[in-house]
Amino acid sequence: MSTLANRNFKSISQSAQSMASVPEQNKGTLEAQSAQTSSHAVSDTQDEFKVMGSSLTTKKLVIIHPGSKHLRIGRASDVNPHTILHAIARPRRKDGPLHRDPVLIPTVVLSKENKLLVDEMFQSMRGTLQSCLRSDGTPRPATSAQQVATANKQCTPIQGSVSKLQLVTKSDVEDYIIGDQVLYAHPMDQFNVHFPFRHGDLNIHSGVGGSMSSVLADLETIWGHCIVNLLEIPKSELKHYRAVLVIPDIYNRLFLKELVSLLLTHLGFGGCFLLQDHVAATFGAGLGAACVVDLGDQKTSVSCVEDALSQRATRIRLDYGGSDITQSFHYLLQRAGFPYKECQPQHPLDAALLTRIKEGYCHLNLDFCGLRDVNFVVERPGVPTLRFHVKVGDELLLAPLGLFNTEVFALTGQDKRGQGQANASGDPEDPHDANYLRETSRRAHKEALENQSASAASMDTVENSTNAGGQGDEDLVVDSLAADATPDDQPQQQLLYSLDQAILHSIERCCELFFENSKYEFVLPFLKASDEMKRRMYSCILLVGGGAKFEGLSTWLHNRLLLQIPFQFRPEQTEIIVGPKEMDPSMVAWKGAAIMSALESGQELWIRPAEWKKIGVRLLRERAPFYW
């Protein structure tokens, strides 16, 4: 990241906050003014768009926020983005292998010990709910699985008319199916189904369509289809448009390089820049500093953001999310005599049904207790619909409570331990990559130590220089090596954190210094600043993502955190923000990226095709709004 870009970060953040606070009806005027000003402020941008015969307005900016399950794409001038299933289905080649990525993370067969552990954890959670009080102070009546099963014994579905839904066959498509239509791909036609993103990263695997080139080709097809059909922008006109790509807070540098090439070279945008999702979320919420928690479909990520910078040491990603909650919910429904016995989460339409029931009924509001009515319709193409009226009890709370009792996510089997930003790997196109900087830093430290030792030896006696100089040399070597192994360059310790533990761990690493026990007095101001930053983060926690929509989640998280925040960092008030300015939590990051793209302060971040072709990945070191 360039010094110039770094210097403008604070002004970018302040501009974003002021713009986010503007009423919706006035944003278009402000964005247009910002774009008009920027055309005079950045000469090369002005010249480029003169050649293109257009001016830089929000209508010429395309915001792309790809997720593991959904893609959100739209113009910066749109109130809300288009949201589609981020998947593509292609007809299987003759005699070729079949590959289908599931809509939900699949469950695994548990051993007896693990199954007993999961059941004991759910039973413990039921006991916790039974001991809770409602908001009026009265005891909260709990429900058992047996009670729910008894209530559903007499439940029979009501048969309706024949469904008008139709499956998509090979004869209906030329080459591919995109978006929600993937759910209706005819199983007999054997489509290969691919989700280009999994757990927040490109879905690289050894199966069909799992190579880097195949995944990028899928992304080009999906994004290009949405641009042409949803945004109604011809591909030949994309050279007059610019794209903002929202990326995960923990990123793979190789993947980012390929994605920039995809936008500029293959799709043909006239410019682009990358923005981390947590930073974009603070822009969308109008916050200068916050601990951002993103609850996605397949991952949960936490980091601390201040002045438009995500603190690298605080980033942590956990590979569980809404999909794991859905599978836990189905497991609980089965234990409670779920009347829809034929439900199969691996079937795309059943997976979508379970997700809708979870999003519509699951909550963490202790005032809602006892048996509740849950209504849903099972619809299959060509057969009569079935309408169910079932009773569900505390299962509606137990499923989202898995966020605080992550042992139950053993149902989906995968390793869900915390991950941090990995060390930068070398890149042959970047001569000043992390490996080069690390080696040159060590050499500079070593030369400085040798010079200091020689200077001390010439000024003092041999005995004093041996005692003092040798001791000083030892101290400096330790500090030097510690600087080389700062937490910014090391992955997080891999542990399975619950949601509250992940937040505490992230904030605890704010401005973490390895020389806290150093004898040097100059360290003290940094330590005081670190403590102050931790208090700011504990005072403002922003929940975004589709998994943050459970009613009562913020209250439950608030109560858990208050019991664990260290006394010396406890703020006057801890505010947990969900859906700022009445926005959908899943769209906050997209909205923030739209706001930032229109700011005058952000115009120097754009990367143009000619520059990318000539300079390559080194541009990301200079232009990226995060430390490359």
Automatic annotation (TrEMBL):
It comes from the Eukaryota. InterPro entries: Actin (IPR004000), ATPase_NBD (IPR043129). This is Actin-related protein 8. Residues 1-44, 450-468 have a biased composition (Polar residues). SUPFAM superfamilies: Actin-like ATPase domain. The lineage of its organism: Eukaryota, Metazoa, Ecdysozoa, Arthropoda, Crustacea. Residues 1-46, 415-474 are annotated as: Disordered. Belongs to the actin family.
